[in-house]
């Protein structure tokens, strides 16, 4: 279980306890947190669960991107070097305290 | 005006198999899709990616699945209306009048929405200023490449479309290619070619920059780009091209008075009808308790929706369940000779 903080582009903060094994994306969807669309349902086939990890230390601590994630991020709205697809961030106790920022929009 | 039993919106696997089921029970259908090819997400998002959870098919790619489904409905000779989009629905005397963007009209008692997550549209530049030039000098696809001759063209993106057009247009235009990172997702041969063209100064290659603003006075004059650390550059531009892949938009479906739950359409699980009589929704676009966004679920949903359509298309007939192994009627419809 990890407490994940989701911050919308307008600054609205949401906190959710997300069970281990779910993705950060699923944590948002299951808790009705707006700002993450996840059109493809977690298949790394769209780029609508895009988030920024603004904290450098957290960004480095996250599991590395798999092949294809950066390619998909090219197609996201305003990708940056601290962008991730939240469907690829699988929750474990190690992620307790992670904060993700949502982009202005997903599509 | 084309009269038919069913209009299917979406030529992905779910729409294709629903068409098959309609053909099996003796109904006609017309299939509309706004992509220029058949296959939906399977062909647009993952043509080469293997799928491992199609029953009795241990492994196949999106393209193989699509080709097999096309083969499977061939006996029925259904019409496809590609690069078109259903725009308007109107109900008259229990019939739906359907109008498409390209001006086609259908009259049908049934509509099956198998629209995935909506229609694919190019992702546009995030900058507001680009909207003013949209379709004129800011473009997301190329119809006539001769307009770029001897012009300054700035291309954004790192995939095959961006690389291929940069290579192609470098013959007759001043090309600048801008991408947000050093790696490209295009084919290795194209990436190699781009590096050569950049090394011999045929094109300008700028990485780790993205668009900030487009500027002009009536007509486009330049594009300003920015790096993440805040540096910016201004590049002369007659045309700006963006190739950031496709996004999915629900589009006109949202305006037909259907109940919506986020971007999905609630249905009953008996026949996958929506809150509107004669409008069915199947595949990724429908929702109900326990819904799984799997291709196999879409197949099941399409089979049941097809029977739902039968009721409205043949109100005076009784639907009779038959197996393809045993029914001579079905074999006739499939053109099978024994």
Defining key terms:
A: alpha+beta, Ubiquitin-like (UB roll), 3-stranded mixed sheet, two-stranded antiparallel ribbon, 3 helices, 20% strand, globular, B: alpha/beta, FAD/NAD(P)-binding domain, 5-stranded parallel sheet, 23 strands, 29% strand
Task: Give start-end ranges of low-pLDDT stretches of chain B.
Answer: none
**Relative strand content of chain A:** 15-25%
Relevant CATH superfamily of chain A: Beta-grasp domain
Measure the end-to-end span of chain B.
38 Å
| CATH third-tier fold name of chain A | Ubiquitin-like (UB roll)
What strand order characterises the main sheet of chain A? Answer: 2-1-5
Strand content of chain B: 25-35%
- The sequence of SSEs of chain B as H and E is EEHEHEEHEEEEEEEEHEHEEEEEEEEEHH
Describe the largest sheet of chain A: 3 strands, mixed
- For the record, what is the CATH homologous superfamily label of the largest domain in chain B? FAD/NAD(P)-binding domain
Structural domain tally of chain B: 2
Structural commentary:
The complex is a heterodimer of chains A (107) and B (338). Chain A has 107 residues and is α+β, with helices and mostly antiparallel strands. Chain A has one domain (2-101): Ubiquitin-like (UB roll), CATH 3.10.20. Helices cover 17% and strands 20% of the residues of chain A. Chain A is built from three helices and five strands; from the N terminus they run ββαβααββ. Chain A has helices at residues 24-30, 56-61, 69-73, and strands at 2-7, 13-18, 50-52, 83-85, 99-101. In chain A, β1 and β2 form a beta hairpin. The longest helix of chain A has 7 residues, at 24-30. The radius of gyration of chain A is 12 Å and the shape is globular. Chain B is an alpha/beta fold. The relative contact order of chain B is 0.17. The chains are: A alpha+beta (107), B alpha/beta (338). The interface between A and B is medium-sized, with 19 and 25 residues.
